[in-house]
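Support request, please re-run this one:
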Amino acid sequence: MAYEFERKQRIAVLGGGPGGYEAALTGAQLGAEVTVIERSGVGGSAVLTDVVPSKTLIATAEAVGNVDEATDLGVQFFSRTDAGRAVKPEITVNLAAVNARLLRLARQQSEDMKSQLIKAGVRVIHGDGRLDGPNRLIASTGRGKSRVDFDEIEADTIVVSVGATPRVLPTAKPDGERIFTWTQLYGLQEIPEHLIVVGSGVTGAEFASAYRTLGSEVTLISSRDQVLPGEDADAARVIEDVFKRNGMTVLSKSRAESVVRTDEGVVATLSDGRTVEGSHCLMAVGSIPNTAGIGLAEAGVQLTESGHIRVNRVARTSVPSIYAAGDCSDFLPLASVASMQGRTAVFHAMGDAVNPTELRNVTSNIFTQPEIATVGWSQKQIEDGIAQGEIYKLPLASNPRAKMMGIRDGFVKLFARTGSGTVIGGVIVAPKASELIMSVALAVEHRLTVDQLARAFSVYPSLTGSITDAARAMHIVH
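Re-run finished. Output below.
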């Protein structure tokens, strides 16, 4: 008697960043035969050159800031000279050691993720990959020493998670020595004397904040009216005020036409003819998806004008067997969203229960000092009539824990649906806002009202107390 065994579903993943990693892990856990092709290392740029190293650098800057501001809390640092006289020591940062540590942590994280995949039974191929139709990937590897070897992977489902790379301007070409993209900064051995940052979006603002705290003179060139265009206006205003108070030069409504090296540094020329001289320059002018030359169009996958892959809310492309996750897609470019897309894609492809990703429920955070965390509808959308809501803002200065900690800047802002009081969004500007936003995110995700949020017990004293205080102030009278 012959038995027919059902063949395992085959999933091929191109790119091992957050989206590809989660897709592969989810597929393996659901019993699929999974292959991942990754050219740099599991975790992709998010782990190796972007999120992990940059946030590690920012954590170091935060530690420096805490030491520097401790005197406000009555903590004083002194050393003694040979004569016994007390002198205040200078806070110094060994940037070479900092960068060595963060790159070590990034590699460690990448190896841990690779081990998890292999443990789950995923086949990991180190090499470049491209699509050869809707159900096949071709991986090129260097195993043959004098030749390039090729692996052909047949798949029922393909997940593309190839990420993006920093945008490069022809008039400001990075050289990795004086002019940098954000992936190149980690080779610096010393704190830049004067860092010019071109671009005041999330990446530019984060690095400008970090390097100013680490001791660099910083000039931030912003083409818009204020830093962080597109973010909550009140939050952006707080950050810009903090930047200026801390000695940063912010050039608003200024566009850098070119950045070139000089004998001793760099010079940025603005569109109005002004020039800014510095020792180094960071170009933070956006990114481009890594979608060119990998067979997407030939396989029938639709792309946007910018080269991003069009996907729906379950990460599916225009080709039923192909999904896309992360910064290469036209979804929100966040590591957490990429991970969710990767999981959602595999759940959908394998017929498991799936909740389509709702972008309005996504939390995001900007790791400046203080941080900015957001979720849900924005104040601008409410003011423009796109969403119907009430707005309440509570400054952190009134919070008892904030006073104890010496926090001067920040606020909690909640948005609630007019009439029902359902929480539809919020903004928090505070140290560790990335941790504080979770309770608001839960309220948005589960459609809690401000009264339900207010009834939760927050610790006294705590910064989270401002969230329940704000919710209580928005009480809906029935």
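DSSP finds 13 helices and 25 strands in the chain. The domain at 179-285 is CATH 3.50.50.60 (FAD/NAD(P)-binding domain).
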